[in-house]
Amino acid sequence: MSAPLRVGTRASALALWQTEHVRARLHAAGYRTERVEIRTTGDMVQDVPLARIGSRALFTRQIDDAMLDGRIDLAVHSLKDLPTVLPEGIALAAVAEREDPRDALVGRGPLGWDDLPRGGIVATSSLRRRAQLLHLRPDLEVRDVRGNVDTRLRKLDASSEWSAILLAVAGLVRLGLDQRIGERLSPELILPAPGQGALAVTARRDDAAAATAAARAVHHAETSRAVAAERAFLRTLEGGCQVPVGAHATLAGETVRVHGRVVSLKGVRAVEAVETGLARDENEADALGVRLAERLRADGADVVLAEARAAAAPSVPEP
Questions:
Q1: Active-site residue (options: 47, 64, 65, 81)
Q2: What's the CA gap between 79 and 128, in Å, rounded?
Q3: CB contact at 8 A, 288 and 258
Q4: Active site includes 139?
Q5: Does the pLDDT value for residue 24 go beyond 70?
Q6: Which residue of 24, 112, 161, 184 is 20 to 30 Å from 94, comparing CA positions?
Q7: Cross-strand partners of 249
Q8: Which run of H or E residues covers position 203?
Q9: pLDDT at position 241, please?
Q10: What percentage of residues in the chain have a pLDDT greater than 90?
């Protein structure tokens, strides 16, 4: 009998849910697995805004190291946390079917977008969410909040001055916390992070057996096409956690529509566009995302991003 596939993961409740979901798919396809929990930079540094940490691989580097060292065979990530350019020797083996990619507005009780009070305080750890909030509602005060989903919810419940927090719908649904959602915010209002709601499984490039197992058990072609456009858009803009970039792609048969947006940190300026075209596979979807990014760069996105990177220059080295 072959050895079980060792599946690496972060140890947060959400990461463990995601990993168990992938393991269940692997088991159903006849593969044995074991879980290996790994602490990442994002887990170790909890008291600093994400954009102030000097790394683009906040939630993946230590997992990548374990894979390259041969300590794990596969790794499960939230696709939005996965850098658009992977380390040498590591490949994206599978993309699981996507959950709702939208952002959720969460209050202590029922709360919709139109219910946010003037001058209200909204907390988020994301520069993308912060910039779009201020673009739409410059009267709002945006505070930083770190921690896992349950930690952020506890901070909201304990902070009577806060009006709301923003979280990914997908994480709340997966943890059985969707009753906390006040409103699922339309992508036309706030664009999600590229890849949000999708799960990624990575493998070593020289481990064909592990990659094949992930592809057979987990891969969802339609989701993979959509997120290929979003990630190409982000990659071409050289974005990551440190820059306010949002993207959302939808499919209609072989046609992909991708909407992208870049917003200045204080919300003063936004550059956005939509690109629609034939995208029968990931390569064609990737090209569509590149075209959209180049359109935004021609409209001034580079200037907005340069200002954002300068304002969010890392101040804390990676541990």
A1: 81
A2: 16
A3: yes
A4: no
A5: yes
A6: 184
A7: 258
A8: strand 199-204
A9: 57
A10: 83
pTM: 0.90
**pLDDT tens string 130-148:** 999 999 999 999 999 988 8
With beta carbons less than 8 A apart as the criterion, state whether 228 and 284 touch: no
Q: Of 72, 85, 80, 88, nearest to 34 (Cα)? A: 72
Contacts for 192 with CB less than 8 Å, ≥ 6 apart: 80, 101, 102, 103, 168, 246, 247, 248
For residues 74-82, give the mean pLDDT. Answer: 95
Give the Cα separation of 203 and 282 in Å (integer).
Answer: 18
Return the amino acid letter for 117.
Answer: P
Residue 53 confidence (pLDDT): 41
Query: Using CA of residue 181, residue 184, residue 189, residue 194, what is the dihedral sign?
Result: positive
Domains and CATH numbers, the chain: 1-100+198-219 (3.40.190.10), 103-185 (3.40.190.10), 221-313 (3.30.160.40)
C-alpha dihedral sign at 104, 109, 111, 115 = negative
CA 25 to each of CA 21, 98, 101, 217: distance values in angstroms, whole numbers, following the listed order: 7, 14, 21, 6
Residue 312: how many other CB atoms lie within 10 Å: 18
CA distances from 170 to 23, 32, 62, 235 (A): 18, 27, 24, 23
The Cα–Cα gap between 73 and 265 comes to 39
pLDDT of amino acid 191: 98
Identify the bridge partners of residue 106 per DSSP, sorted by sequence position. Answer: 165, 181
Q: How far apart are CA 215 and CA 205, in angstroms?
A: 13
CA distances from 63 to 21, 32, 38, 66, 198 (A): 18, 20, 6, 5, 18
Contact 92, 82 (CB under 8 A): yes
- Do 311 and 47 meet the contact criterion of CB atoms below 8 Å apart? no
Whose CA is closest to 247, among 269, 228, 224?
A: 228
User: Is residue 23's pLDDT more than 90?
Assistant: yes
